[in-house]
Amino acid sequence: MNPKREPPASSPASAKAPSGKRPRPKTPQDPSQGPQGVTVDAGEIARFSAMAAEWWDPRGKFRPLHKFNPVRLGYIRSQVCAHFGLDESARQPLKGLRLLDIGCGGGLLSEPMTRLGAEVVGADAGEANIKTASVHAAEQDLAIDYRATTAEALAEAGEKFDVILNMEVIEHVADVDAFLAACAAMLKPEGMMICATLNRTLKALGLAVIGAEYVLGWLPRGTHDWRKFITPQEFERHLQRQKLKVNHLTGVSYNPLQDRWFLSGDRDVNYMLVAVPVR
Amino acid sequence: MSTAQSKQDPEMFDIAVVGGGLVGLPLALGFAQAGFKVAVIDAQAPEEVARAEFDGRVSALSPASLAMFGQLGVLPHLENRLQPVTDIMVTDGKVGGRAAPFFLHFDAADNEAGPLMHMAENRHIRIAAQKAAERAPDTLHQIAPDGAESFARDAGGVEVRLASGRVIRARLAVAADGRASRLRAFAGLKTVGWSYDQMGIVTTVEHELPHDGTAQEYFLPSGPFAILPMQGNRSSLVWSEKTALAKTIMAMDEEGFARECAKRFGDYLGAHRPVGPRWSYPLGLQLAHDYVSERIALVGDAAHVLHPLAGQGLNWGLKDAAALVEVTAETARVGLDIGSLAALERYQRWRRFDAVSLALVTDGLNRLFSNDVGPLRLLRDVGLGLVGKLGPARRFLMREAAGGSGDVPKLLKGEPV
């Protein structure tokens, strides 16, 4: 189950206002101007604001992602705190860390990471996603450096990060090795990368593709290509080629009765891992 | 004046609690303890609500509610004001009739945890919560007396404009402003409900003999009549009566009122007389269809008004408060937006089912008992008699009243009571 890559920005229907009840945001920050100069044309703000509202509507079409978000956020928080020896009880434990959210979409990870104190760069190749995310962050009074760019371009520019979030991205990437090489190049020597993806098992084909896309209708058909899913062993070999090693691996499972996701030992469908540079 | 103030920058908070009453102030204490910067707004000055005339009612506090008060620092200021209830007698009766046999009897011997519950005067709870607030972390900001005049909501927060001209902005606003909640109306959250054509009359009675911590509940044809032990030789009457008669009784002079009381009170506590002011209020059931909307959550009477026969009103409001603090703290812990629907829906799922269940059970009990129809009398005599004989069922009802059991009432899961 992985709705993050859904491209709502390309659908004109998704641009209409949800119900007309949402007033124009009143914010201290000018929503047309992201912190690092993502410009959103004044005439486009209403459209991107409506799209942001749709991204962030927990009862809307991103419902599965909102359900999934707490478990992966909890995992990121505890793994980052453990890796850097941070105070778990602090309100902003990630203060002082520079974090890259690759494939940030509407900002569903970038915003929480910013609230937890991290200095966040959110990158997405889709310009509509970046505009949507920028408008929403301004509405929430959060300073996030959103950029319509790729991992390769950021690495080329010499960007460095303490934490790289690579969540539900790898299964959509054309050249996994080139992509991971770019990520590895941006990782500081003491840094960490957290990845989440889908396993290439029959169970994943049944649940994440046929179940979520065709039976339950959680995701648009064609969101995932099962053949591009990778197993934890394959992922580990890809990482090794970039001088990265896996130091934590967990499964993520869904409880349909509670309608909640939880960390588990079952890595057959969704799994997450932590990779660090080999020293 | 207002034009100049409308331009001012709002004061920023994580959370605004509208209504600093029996539920609102403990809720704000809980938020402050969890590290949130919280504003609690109340129209009444704290010294005003401490007066006996302001609210002479009493509340039953379950062991779970007392534990929560302990955690919030309220209990030390309330401890010597609590009257333990060690017995509850439930009786089916007739006005002026012969003392009916007890059909249902709960006592502390059934409950390993000590007293079934404690009675406290509402004003003592308010005073204790106020004392706790004065010692709370400085992230708690009490704004009283001041009224919430109007509300506005945008994608990032809720703004509350106060009568004084102050403007409060918060990421989450909580309606703890009672059954006629204005914040609920602003949020467009609808309620369902009905009135019982009954009024509740509340007063305090002094009596000759000690009550020994026993609470009495008579199911009279006109509605339940409860005698709740207070400290000393005093009890609080919670007396439900058909609306027309209740109005007549409320208008009576002291002598007439005392006579009407005596007809129902019986003589088991010796000579007795009503003292102090009387209050009356219409009884009805009211439930909010939704407890949450974007950036707004309902707690306590704003979310649910139950029939007082269950004695659970405040306990349920405090459960709302406890659940909302927990959900909000967990949301903030992972960096999510505390006012987002995604977060608030968890609170709604947690609390709404419970409240609806209890409301339907108490509504059903009230309807079953508030009449004088022969066959129904027989039915409920048999029914209550059976429950009284079944130890496990009785203990279940007691645990439920104590707030210590699971979130879902067994009756609604199809399990035996």
UniProtKB/TrEMBL annotation, chain A:
Catalytic activity: a 3-(all-trans-polyprenyl)benzene-1,2-diol + S-adenosyl-L-methionine = a 2-methoxy-6-(all-trans-polyprenyl)phenol + S-adenosyl-L-homocysteine + H(+); a 3-demethylubiquinol + S-adenosyl-L-methionine = a ubiquinol + S-adenosyl-L-homocysteine + H(+)
GO biological process assignments: methylation
Organism: Tepidicaulis marinus
Family the entry assigns: Belongs to the methyltransferase superfamily. UbiG/COQ3 family.
Secretion signal, residue range per the UniProt entry: none
Lineage: Bacteria, Pseudomonadati, Pseudomonadota, Alphaproteobacteria, Hyphomicrobiales
Underlying gene: ubiG
Residue ranges, annotated region (Disordered): 1-39
Pathway recorded for this protein: Cofactor biosynthesis; ubiquinone biosynthesis
Job description of the protein: O-methyltransferase that catalyzes the 2 O-methylation steps in the ubiquinone biosynthetic pathway.
List of residues binding S-adenosyl-L-methionine: R72, G103, D124, M167
The protein's name: Ubiquinone biosynthesis O-methyltransferase
HAMAP family cross-referenced by the UniProt entry: UbiG
